[in-house]
Amino acid sequence: MRWKCTCEYDGTGFSGWQSQPGGNSIQDHIETRLHWMFGRKVCIHGSGRTDAGVHARGQVFHFDGEWPHGPDKLLRAFRCGFPSAIRVSGVGEVAQDFHARFSAKKKCYKYYLLEGFPGAFTHRYNWCLGNRRLNFAAMQDLAKYFHGRHNFSAFCASRGDNPAQDPIRAIGEMNFKRSGRSIVFTVIADGFLYRMVRMLIGSFVAFGLGKVTGETMLTMLSTGIRQINIDTAPPHGLFLHSVDYA
């Protein structure tokens, strides 16, 4: 039996999604719970990795295991045995050819910015810019040019375990929305490169602050060559919002 599961987590204090030697990744905690539930080692496969400090509202993973009690009792078994910052929110049986990563059609990430200084309940989930102010209208206009298929080599970091990853990605939606001092950056694509979202938001913030020209941004997009140093946005403002299999 193959099970598709959706989970959410506050990434603060964890070493990311993927299993780590220290055992403090999201994957480690879920597999530890599954070992207790099934009485054997169970490996899970996620829709993608999130870095240390990155959060998720709709991460998806799958695993194989014989569970004769139905999905409701499986979900009930998932409701304990985790740190409070990890929650499995949905389970369902799927076909054996389903794969949480390779069956995904789209992923949606959201990044949260705050023009101002953080409050007690905002600092963990927003990149707070203090006294700095962004040219919001210009950022909105520039984002339109990033729609469609492009080479995002200039907006990603290298990962030693997958150096030959295809840099071409198709962005279906990319926008900035403001509500008072809060700005939400949303990007939906067929897939993402390593640290691509955080480097995109880092470069857009630099543009919004007047540190980078729009011409430079578009040249990097068209050539795939990074012409400037890009500050990677901090992880705590980023959420894996949802994964679409339709």
Element layout with pairings:
Elements: E1 2-9, H1 26-38, E2 45-46, E3 55-64, H2 70-77, E4 86-94, E5 106-114, E6 127-128, H3 136-143, E7 148-151, E8 168-179, E9 182-189, H4 196-208, H5 214-223, E10 238-244
Parallel strand pairs: 3-10, 5-6
Antiparallel strand pairs: 1-3, 1-4, 2-3, 5-9, 5-10, 7-8, 8-9
How would you classify the helix and strand content by structural class? alpha+beta
CATH topology name of the largest domain = Alpha-Beta Plaits
CA-atom Rg in angstroms: 19 Å
The N- to C-terminal Cα distance equals 21 Å
H/E element string? EHEEHEEEHEEEHHE
The CATH architecture classification of the largest domain is 2-Layer Sandwich
Count of DSSP E strands? 10
Q: Could you report the average pLDDT, rounded to the nearest whole number?
A: 95
Binned strand content: 25-35%
General form: globular
Largest sheet: 10 strands, mixed
Overview of this protein structure:
By secondary structure, this protein is of the alpha+beta class. It folds into two domains: 2-94, Pseudouridine synthase I, catalytic domain, N-terminal subdomain (Alpha-Beta Plaits, 2-Layer Sandwich), CATH 3.30.70; 106-244, Pseudouridine synthase I, catalytic domain, C-terminal subdomain (Alpha-Beta Plaits), CATH 3.30.70. Helices cover 21% and strands 29% of the residues. The protein has five helices and ten strands; from the N terminus they run βαββαβββαβββααβ. It has helices at residues 26-38, 70-77, 136-143, 196-208, 214-223; strands spanning 2-9, 45-46, 55-64, 86-94, 106-114, 127-128, 148-151, 168-179, 182-189, 238-244. Strands 1, 2, 3, 4, 5, 6, 7, 8, 9 and 10 form a ten-stranded mixed sheet that branches. A hairpin with an 8-residue loop joins strand 2 and strand 3. The chain is globular, with a radius of gyration of 19 Å. The two termini are 21 Å apart.
